[in-house]
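User: I've been trying to design a sequence by hand for this structure and keep getting stuck. Would you show me what you'd pick, starting by listing the structure so we're on the same page?

Assistant: Good idea, let's start from the same input. This is the structure you sent:
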């Protein structure tokens, strides 16, 4: 594993297993993915960034588990789901969705379908 990714998890070592499960599914299900670890997030790219993992606080402290990972992805539509913890429309017809994960089982087909859709949108944009 990349040293920058390991450094990202220094303050949150229990969340590393969540990230590893997410990264594995993304690499298995989406072609041509690259990863860039930054100070505040780990971004997944094909042609452009389509998803990222972070510790964004998308729930109030008392509603957040001790160990979590926030997955963010952009779609051309707004998803209505109880699993979505936050949605913003930074510009017309571009919706940024945030999903808080606390266990690997939450990296399921529903989440991966959204991430694949985000990757497809990213790949098709000029």
């Amino acid at each position: 594993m990349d040293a920058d990714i390991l450094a990202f998890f220094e303050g949150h070592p229990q969340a590393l297993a969540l990230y590893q499960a997410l990264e594995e599914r993304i690499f298995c299900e989406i072609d041509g993915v690259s990863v860039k670890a930054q100070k505040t997030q780990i971004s997944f790219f094909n042609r452009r960034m389509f998803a990222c993992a972070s510790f964004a606080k998308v729930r109030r402290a008392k509603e957040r588990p001790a160990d979590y990972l926030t997955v963010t992805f952009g779609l051309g539509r707004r998803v209505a789901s109880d699993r979505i913890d936050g949605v913003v429309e930074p510009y017309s017809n571009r919706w940024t969705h945030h999903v808080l994960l606390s266990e690997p089982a939450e990296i399921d087909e529903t989440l991966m379908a959204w991430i694949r859709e985000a990757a497809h949108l990213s790949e098709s944009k000029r």
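That's my pick for every position. To get oriented when you compare it with your attempt: The beta strands are 34-37, 41-45, 49-54, 69-75, 86-91, 94-101. The first strand starts at residue 34 and ends at 37.
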